[in-house]
Amino acid sequence: MKNAHQVHRGRRDALIAQMRRHSGGGLAIVPTSPEVARNRDSLYPYRHDSYFYYLTGFPEPEAVVALVADGDGDRHVLFCREKDVDREIWDGFRYGPDAAKEIFAFDEAHPIAELDRLLPDLTADRPALFTPVGMHADWDRRIAATLNEVRGRARTGVVAPDEIVDVRGTLDRMRLVKDVQELALMRRAGEISSQAHLRAMARARPGWHEYEVEAELAHEFLRQGAQAVAYPSIVASGPNACVLHYRDNDRRMADGDLLLIDAGCEYRGYASDITRTFPVSGKFSGPQKAVYELVLAAQLACLDAVRPGASFHDYHKVAERVLALGLIDLGLIAGPLDAALESGSYRKFYMHRAGHWLGMDVHDAGNYQEKGESVKLEPGMVLTVEPGLYIRSGEGVPDEFADIGVRIEDDVAVTADGIENLTARAPKTVADVEAACGNG
Prior knowledge:
Mean pLDDT: 96
Strand order of the largest sheet: 6-5-4-1-7-8
Number of strands: 21
Low-confidence stretches: none
Radius of gyration: 25 Å
CATH class of the largest domain: Alpha Beta
CATH superfamily of the largest domain: Creatinase/methionine aminopeptidase superfamily
């Protein structure tokens, strides 16, 4: 197996090949994310830009990757912070250009302070410039200044690129299919997050606040080596489970509540995304069990529909059909099924899609449609499968079903002959969930 930085260099070579096919060559230049101030002299925890990291594996801020494709040969160039022993005392280790060049498999590496001086030379006489457009205003201004600098040298015989291409389109298509190393990292992220959900089930109990359960999740993520959450954890009890992106996590949980947890760690740059719903007191009530088993039936049917060659949107249609039929059976919407599907009456209780791409970002890169048609699934694609029902109290809702919210979500890799469930260790049958609960 290739080492990680050979893999990153291979991705850069693949992007260069796409540049050649598009315009015969050119320059691709991608910055990482800037550091962001939290308040006064404190920064938010740093997180790299996913496109930049996909191409480099380089974790530090203040860095730019430049890829040159022309007749004189390809060049992989990194700009990064200089080695600075004094700053390392305060802020920690820095690679510096010399070490970064060798470790991360670059042909050249320069101090980031040299970028503005060298960028016009890299840009001149290239047929096209491939860069993120509209992602960061400061970067757009830098690119505009560089192009104007090159155009100002026209009397010396150089020309600016004729075409500016948003490189994210090409990188999105590349990122959509994960390689062996990416799948291994996502598998580990799924394992860690599954164990965190198990911990939450075992420890949550009536009288706890939602944030106490959130702390148990964070404990397990960090204990097992995950660097961060992949997104702010949703720990939603009782009526809060009917708020899709609930984030307050401050309600005190009561006996008889369901607790919906949508939480996943980020492991070495790759996200997991799991949702489980369980009874805080360890036992589902009759109505809770009925809704839960309906959502589980929909999720299992969706998993059966995910396979190579299927259209991405197929499993969402499966979720709609199973959930709508179940809602009719529960007396929550009127039948018949075809009429409910046509009118969309089920959307009162199920208003989101059945899943999304997953990878370096929790809502990962990649289109869902190409030329008006749903993208076909192929091995290496990773997606979530997450139907749910959210029965808010109100007109027409029987009291026994009021404020029941259930979502069940797994992370699934498409394989040559089906799927691999990366989060299968998190319990989801009624019996397994109740057995996992600390009060069960």
